[in-house]
Amino acid sequence: MNILEVRDLHVSVMHKPVLRGVDLVLHGGGIHAIMGPNGSGKSTLAHVLAGRDDAQVTAGTMLYQGMDVLAMTPEIRAGAGMFLAFQNPVEIPGVSNVRLLKEASNAHRRYLQLPEMDAMTFRSQLQDRARRLGLADDWLLRAVNVGFSGGEKKRNELLQMLVLEPHLAILDEIDSGLDIDALTTVAEGINSLRDAQRAMLLITHYPRLLDLVVPDKVHVLIGGRIVLTGGPELAGQLEARGYGWLAEEHS
Amino acid sequence: MNDATILSSALSRSYKHGFVTSIHADTLPEGLDEAVIQQISSRKQEPEFMLAWRLAAYRHWCDMTEPHWSSVRYPPIDYQGISYYSSPFAKNQDAVALEDVDPALLATYAKLGIPLDERLSLAGVAVDAVFDSVSVATTHQKKLAQLGIIFCSMSEAVREHSELVRRYLGSVVPAGDNFFAALNAAVFSDGTFCYIPPGVRCPMELSTYFRINAARTGQFERTLIIADRNSYVSYLEGCTAPQRDRHQLHAAVVELIALEGAEINYATVQNWYPGDARGRGGIYNFVTKRGECREDRARISWTQVETGSAITWKYPSVILRGAGSIGRFHSVALTHHYQQADTGTKMIHIGRDTHSTILSKGISAGHGHNAYRGLVKVLAGANGARNHSQCDSLLLGSECSAHTYPCIEVRNHSAKVEHEATTSRIGEEQLFYCRQRGLTREEAVALIVNGFCQEVLRELPMEFSVEARKLLEVNLEGSVG
Amino acid sequence: MNTAMNSHQAHFIAHAATLPGHDSALIHASRQAAMQRFMGMGFPTRKLERWKHTSTRVIAQTVYRHVNPGCVGLDPADLDPHLIARQGIHRLVFINGLFVNSLSDMSALPGGVQAGSLARVVNESPGVVAGCIETFPTGDDQGFSELNHALWPDGAFVHVSTGTRLTQPLHLLFITTASREPMITQPWNVLIFGSDTHALVVEHYVTLGHTTHHLTNPYTSLILDDRAHVHHLLLLGERLPANHVGTVQVTQKAGSHLGSHLFANGGERTRQEVHVTLAGAEAECALDGLFFASGRQHMDFQTSMHHACGHTRSRQLYKGILDEQSRGVFNGVIRVPPGVHHTQSRQTTANLLLSDTAEIDARPQLEIHSDAVQCSHGATVGSLDPDALFYLQSRGLDVNAARALLIHGFAEELLQRVAPAEVRGWVGRSLNPGEGVRDEDRPGIV
Which of A20, A130, B235, C17 has the least C-beta neighbours within 10 A? Predict the structure, then answer.
């Protein structure tokens, strides 16, 4: 079964069409990259998949593991294994990372009708993962994203993904604001989750991430449509030539 | 059981302490006059000075008018329609051995999670349980007595430690201080007394658990805590009442006295019956709480989580008289449905180098009304006084309101006073972020509200902190549109 | 009821038939109703929440003379120290509350701007003030404005018609002259700005010569129509025996912008209220205030910001500098009623206490009934930072210079918001020694 099947998706934000007929199919084990210039609709696609209600789906279908995504609330989508790493993760004062992760991970387990994990086991697993991402021990006690640098926020998103082990990970510019060492760590984290049951959608501006996490397919999104699909080599071409030539062809 | 399941079960229940205990009670008829006060005093076998003090307060009260300056609104209270004394014990018998206490009463406290049998009780917490007008049991008294700590009901203190009572009672909140304090002084029936001798660090949390049971009674308890030189005590107060469709009055007075180098931490988790979703019934919680750092380097800290009551009207205050003394006020007030809270604090800086901190978090949901009212006063002699205040309000829904009335009066130029306040609502982005991680909208709101209150909740002792979080969640039930 | 109140009523009864607008049913009814309310409530007392810190006892017990001694013997050169510039500035001059044409200069007023005596305008066409009468604040603490509404003998009338840009400042100069017995002046100023107008108006109160105790009780109505862009400077610089109790009532319509700049250093007792109603979407208001009190001066500033409409923004910054035995009060309220969404408001008050005996009472208040808001306030009270003083001293400044520099820095933020530079410089000079209260030993703030 396909993990994600998007057909002819049209989306408007504040009555302005942003996505104008997007088709996308991801199989288990598949990693697709979506590239495109600013304002092409990349983040809107990510938000719509996760269920953000300020974007309205005006036509088309989205199926996740055969289920109609549109009928699912954001938390049901999350429980079913869809994960969005936000481009700009929000700050939540007073709520520690460990608290959010524990609540989130138990919500997932409830969805799967699994017993909840006891606090000690959870904590030790978490610390282990945090260390692997190079996050200091006091990290878990800090409030979610409050006072974090751009890079710290991205690593925090990745940590959440590693804990929640989603079937579909949508990573919206997970590479922005990262230096090369951090990028390597993040790429290792992403690769560690790679297996035949999972699919990933990487939204990015830069091909550098795609050297480290090699996708099966690269889609170019311009003006709300996928105008070109190719193999991993397409990323390199885009770096060399930019988007201008594609924009002209499809304007 | 972890937090999330506590929450989901919490969200599906309503006020859980709303049951009534059916018990034979010795209740005075409704109404108030000097004869009633004489009856209360004689039932408690009080010394002469107490009766005189009560009667003076009553005469003063008769000349006072009920204050209406706060932002809370309620129909007139009929002070003659209230019974001022209700005891679960037989007449002239207000102190009994635990074995003799009516089992229904013990069961009540067990049901509330407060076992009065010392063998079953929480380790490290000594409890004085007040049921309607009288103290029913005080635990761990013997152990505390070995350290010289006096922890008993107010009635017992008036009889057994009358010198201390005479010296300190009314010394922080005088009998005629305000309308409700005067009423309390006239009719108070019981409460908790606590004395920590010099140099003693009280080894366990002391606590009072207040329960209003009888209908049409008011509860007027009085608490007096004295921390002698270089002593330390941490004190907890919890409150519940049955679900009744008439409003009931609770007008308590709490006085704290910290002598040189002493420290008192006073925490309240107030969960009186708040009334139903349409605003019927519930407790009027009109309380005067004041502490005095009477000598140098004393510290008093008030921490309160106010989730119950139809109306909360209280301003736990600190008089910073001793040089270098410190006052702190940490508050969370949640109002939902038709609850109203007008709460805050007064920090009166008299001595030099006195410091105070105010942290107030107000949450309004439904038709709830929340007001912070504070006074920071620096008198001319308070060189080097410092205050920092932070008042934040969170609004959930479009029918609720939050008011902030801080008042700053500075008479000394070396003082430094800072006040910050914000009013905001939960961001849609925060909600979406949490939901994307799998939390329901309700769970997300509870989590964010908990985060909003975090700085205050962590001031509470562990057992209370857990209780307070649960209460916040319960009381937010149905607040998410 | 006391003698003083009776004297106001007697004046009203004696002069009702001659006061401006006496022919107009609208004006007459407004005066009559105000007089009745005034007699009902009297002068505010300290029992009222917003008058807690300011006593009106002296005012309430003084029998004031309402008639004005005119400008007999006033040399136009006497005005010079108070003028922004001798030429190029539009100017209306009022002596003891009455318009004086001979001292005024409206020669360069552009077409579309009407400016002059309110008494004259109201006698000719009373309907022009109907809109302002509707905005009079009510409440039992409004005794002073009621007295003004009942008895105002004159004041400024300014009307800037749609689309007009007033490029030069308009200076409204109110002068109290020497008098031997207590006198009251009560101008009502009506300032109406049509859609898409631009203007800078300076409302300025000063004293000439030595006066006894007198009371200035002005009331100013400001109406900003859609997209009007207005700066209103209020300079309170009367001499010591003066009592000044003033009210400014602002109504702002959609897309309008008001910058209100208050500077006060004069008077024995000063009380100024500024009430703003943001009545149209995208209306924006900035209220600034800087006050400097010394000696035994008492200054009390009250603001209320009413967000009556969604998508409105307000900002307030009031700073007080208090020396010697002076006393300052700031009481500001932000109100957002139910159902009003997407408002932003910020209110800040900062106060410097320069002496052991100065006092400040600050009450920044929020009354919020809507959840879709961003609202905050802050208040600070402190003295000059000893570290900063030491730093400046270590750089070679003596302690007085260092103090003056720090005080200057504290005040500068508010002066910088005044434009153009010519007016800013003039405001700075007006606040300096030489214009103020006790001239020699007072540290200047600029």
Answer: C17
Say how many residues make up chain B: 481
Cβ separation of B415 and C353 shorter than 8 Å? yes
The half-sphere exposure of A108 on its side-chain side, counting CA atoms within 13 A, is 21
> Virtual CA dihedral for A125, A130, A131, A133, nearest 10 degrees?
130
Does B4 sit within 8 Å of A111, measured CB to CB? no
- Do the Cβ atoms of B443 and B476 come closer than 8 Å? no
Total domains present in chain B: 1
Residue C258 has pLDDT above 60, yes or no: yes
> At B129, which amino acid appears?
A
Asked if residue B7 is part of any domain, the answer here is: yes
CA separation for the pair B295, B351 (Å, rounded): 9
Other CB atoms within a 10 A radius of the CB of residue A195 amount to 8
| Residue B290 CB contacts under 8 Å (≥ 6 apart), including other chains | B172, B173, B254, B255, B256, B316, B317, B318, B319, B346
B480 assigned to some structural domain: no
Q: How far apart are CA B100 and CA B107, in angstroms?
A: 13
Answer yes or no: are the C-beta atoms of A185 and A202 closer than 8 Å: no
Among the partner-chain residues B401, B411, B417, the one whose CB lies closest to the CB of C368 is B401
Q: What is the DSSP string of C252-307?
A: E-TT-EEEEEEEE---SEEEEEEEEEE-STT-EEEEEEEEEE-TT-EEEEEEEEEE
Q: Does A110 touch chain B (CB under 8 A)?
A: yes
The residue count of chain C comes to: 446
pTM for the predicted model, two decimal places: 0.81
Q: What is the rounded CA–CA span in Å between residue B86 and residue B39? A: 12
Give yes or no for residue A138 having a pLDDT over 60: yes
Structure ipTM: 0.81
Instruction: Place C8 in a pLDDT band, splitting at 50, 70 and 90.
Output: very high
Beta carbons of C289 and C350 less than 8 angstroms apart: no
Domain boundaries, position B379: 3-475
Tell me how close the Cα of C219 comes to any Cα of chain B, in angstroms: 27
Residue A121 has, within 13 A of its CA and on its CB side, a CA count of: 6
Sort out which chain A residues have CB atoms less than 8 A from B437's CB and list them.
Answer: 78, 100, 103-104, 107, 160, 164
Strand pairing of C113-117 and C98-99? Answer: unpaired
Helix extents (H) in B413-481: 428-436, 441-457, 462-475
Nearest to B304 by CA among B271, B286, B331, B273: B331
Residue C320: other Cβ atoms inside 10 A: 27
CA torsion angle for B213, B214, B217, B219 (degrees, to 10)?
-20
**Residue pair C392/C405 in contact by the 8 Å Cβ criterion:** yes
- How many Å apart are CA B286 and CA A158, to the nearest integer? 51
Longest alpha-carbon distance in chain A:
57
What would the pLDDT profile of B307-331 be if each residue is shown by its tens digit? 888 888 899 999 999 999 999 999 9
Q: Distance from B420 to chain C by nearest Cα, in Å?
A: 4
Distances (CA, A) of B313 to B252, B328, B396, C367: 11, 19, 21, 18
Q: Which residues of B touch A107 (CB under 8 A)?
A: 4, 437-440, 443
Whole-number Å distance between alpha carbons of B472 and B447: 10
Q: Is the dihedral of CA B31, B34, B35, B37 positive or negative?
A: positive
CATH architecture of A4-94+166-250: 3-Layer(aba) Sandwich (3.40)
Is residue C295 over pLDDT 90? yes
**Residues C233, C424: contact at Cβ < 8 Å?**
no
Whole-angstrom Cα distance, residue B325 to residue C95? 56
B71, B408, B420, B429: which to substitute to probe chain C, counting the most C Cβ within 10 Å? B408
